[in-house]
UniProtKB/TrEMBL annotation:
It is a multi-pass membrane protein. It catalyses: Typically cleaves a -Gly-|-Phe- bond to release an N-terminal, basic peptide of 5-8 residues from type IV prepilin, and then N-methylates the new N-terminal amino group, the methyl donor being S-adenosyl-L-methionine. The lineage of its organism: Bacteria, Pseudomonadati, Pseudomonadota, Gammaproteobacteria, Alteromonadales. Residues 21-142 form the Prepilin peptidase A24 N-terminal domain. InterPro entries: Peptidase_A24A_bac (IPR014032), Prepilin_IV_endopep_pep (IPR000045), Prepilin_pept_A24_N (IPR010627), Prepilin_peptidase/N-MTase (IPR050882). Plays an essential role in type IV pili and type II pseudopili formation by proteolytically removing the leader sequence from substrate proteins and subsequently monomethylating the alpha-amino group of the newly exposed N-terminal phenylalanine. Its EC number is 2.1.1.-, 3.4.23.43. The keyword Calcium does not apply. Residues 153-261 form the Prepilin type IV endopeptidase peptidase domain. Pfam families: A24_N_bact, Peptidase_A24. Keywords: Cell inner membrane, Cell membrane, Hydrolase, Membrane, Methyltransferase, Multifunctional enzyme, Protease, Transferase, Transmembrane, Transmembrane helix. This is Prepilin leader peptidase/N-methyltransferase. Its main location: membrane. It comes from Shewanella algidipiscicola. The chain crosses the membrane at residues 12-34, 146-164, 176-193, 199-220, 232-265, 277-300.
Amino acid sequence: MTQFIDLMAQHPWLFAAISFVFAATIGSFLNVVIHRLPVMMKREWQQECNQYLKEYHQALIAPIADKLDAPIDAFPAKYNLIVPGSACPKCNTTIKPWHNLPIVGWLMLRGRCASCSMPISPRYPVIEAITGVAIAYLALHFGPSWQFALATLLTFALLTLTFIDLDEMLLPDQITLPLLWLGLLINLNGTFATSTDAIIGAAAGYLSLWSVFWGFKLLTGKEGMGYGDFKLLAVFGAWLGWQLLPLIILLSSVVGAVVGIAMIVNKKINSGNPIPFGPYIAIAGWIAMLWGEQIVNAYLATL
């Protein structure tokens, strides 16, 4: 293992290429998580409602079921991230292993099911490509190190959260909470920040957006963001320390405002429609992980 690490350190572009292939393969699995995890959560919510509110089933569950992407009964009884295997949603033909190859598989199929020619969304290879490029860059930035391995894990989680939030306006606790505790644990030895900075960062990250949420709600009577956003910012506080939180909040607000205004101008959304904030926090946090100190130092140098 030591010889392999030394070889990768001596040949950073080879390390980046290997990282790209590995990450693109994981990106294929992230597509599964992005699609299935919200369905699994909705099924769990319905089962809980069925268990505790049986006498009010029709009155309380029907409105929720109407908002689901597909009826709960449309999915098999055993439905998780592994089972059932990937299949065409139209003809139910099982996808062959070589068609599941990241990026290449979609190109081989020319973006269509091999059996019924149903179009396959280009989002699948796009996510695989984004994952591969992001991890390849981390390989060049950190080299073969524990920081690279941990940053890779965080990036996988952020990509998953980003696309789930874009689809469902949801940041699952199943991802954010383990990331929060992992961030605190890895910084016990100062991997990205001191343990003190990480603990303060986790608390400050959560409470800062929590305060904004309640201030906005008291003033307007409306909820301006979700609790998942608080937890995601707490994740970055735990991973990177409290010092980078102002930069993350500023970057996410600027990116969110620009994208939101552009979508309104292009009539993609109405001005009153909610916009997921999690993707902007994720992007800002990833930028801060790589260049946060340089950005802050460059800004302070101008004062």
